[in-house]
């Protein structure tokens, strides 16, 4: 019997926009999205142009005040860096989404499309998208500056060798180093007859690199200390 009962269809009520009179779903502002956007711009006061420092030698970006972050174009790391540069602005709105807009690789321009939300008239939530353009200014980082001044000014070096007839493991290890960007802090990389030498301006970076090698491949470690303090 229950299946034969008359069911009243549920319909969603509509109201007229108080400004243009179009039929719309009710909201706290009693105004359609088009009219609401004409009344309120939630992106007003948010920066649309940002200047960022880029090191052309190691492809890293300056996170003020003194931290350099290595990131490739359109990478997750670069997107995170770009959004963090707007940290003060994004306290005024709620970030919903961020994505890159393609630009020419040599244009020294990075464009990010942001979608934000904010509570406006009478508690209505308005969502808008806007584009931020980042202008790159080339400026060498501290490590690259020191290296340019004196290419032999390194503090620690890691000599990677494989003394066997085949080099399959060595080539595999090279791919892992590239994939994980493990040698990002190396100020100089030199190809040798039986391997590669990595030079670092900081001993801790060299130690971290050696620890990475030990995790991904069987290695033997020999520590040598130079008379002038090199490691």
From TrEMBL:
GO terms for biological process: protein transport; ribosomal large subunit export from nucleus. One of its GO terms (cellular component) is nucleus. It is found in: Cytoplasm; Nucleus. This is 60S ribosomal export protein NMD3. InterPro entries: Nmd3, Nmd3_N. It comes from Gossypium davidsonii (Davidson's cotton). Residues 17-220 form the Nmd3 N-terminal domain. Transmembrane segments: none annotated. Acts as an adapter for the XPO1/CRM1-mediated export of the 60S ribosomal subunit. It comes from the Eukaryota. Pfam families: NMD3. One of its GO terms (molecular function) is ribosomal large subunit binding. Belongs to the NMD3 family. The keyword Protein transport applies. Keywords: Cytoplasm, Nucleus, Protein transport, Transport.
């Amino acid at each position: 019997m229950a299946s034969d009962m008359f069911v009243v269809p549920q319909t969603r009520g509509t109201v007229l926009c108080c400004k243009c009179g179009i039929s719309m779903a009710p909201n706290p502002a009693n105004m359609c999205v088009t009219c609401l956007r004409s009344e309120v711009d939630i992106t007003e006061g948010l920066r649309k142009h940002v200047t960022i420092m880029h090191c052309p030698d190691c492809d890293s970006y300056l996170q003020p005040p003194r931290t350099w972050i290595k990131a490739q174009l359109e990478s997750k790391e670069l997107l995170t860096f770009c959004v963090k540069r707007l940290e003060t602005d994004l306290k005024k709105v709620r970030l919903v989404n961020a994505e890159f807009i393609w630009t020419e690789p040599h244009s020294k321009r990075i464009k990010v499309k942001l979608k934000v939300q904010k509570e406006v008239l009478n508690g209505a939530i308005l969502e808008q998208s806007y584009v931020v353009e980042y202008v790159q200014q080339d400026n060498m980082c501290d490590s690259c500056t020191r290296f340019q001044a004196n290419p032999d000014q390194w503090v620690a070096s890691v000599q990677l060798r494989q003394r066997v007839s085949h080099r399959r493991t060595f080539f595999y290890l090279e791919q892992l180093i590239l994939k994980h960007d493990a040698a990002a802090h190396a100020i100089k990389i030199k190809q040798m007859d039986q391997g590669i030498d990595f030079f670092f301006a900081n001993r801790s970076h060299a130690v971290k690199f050696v620890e990475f090698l030990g995790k991904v491949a069987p290695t033997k470690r020999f520590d040598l200390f130079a008379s002038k303090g090199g490691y």
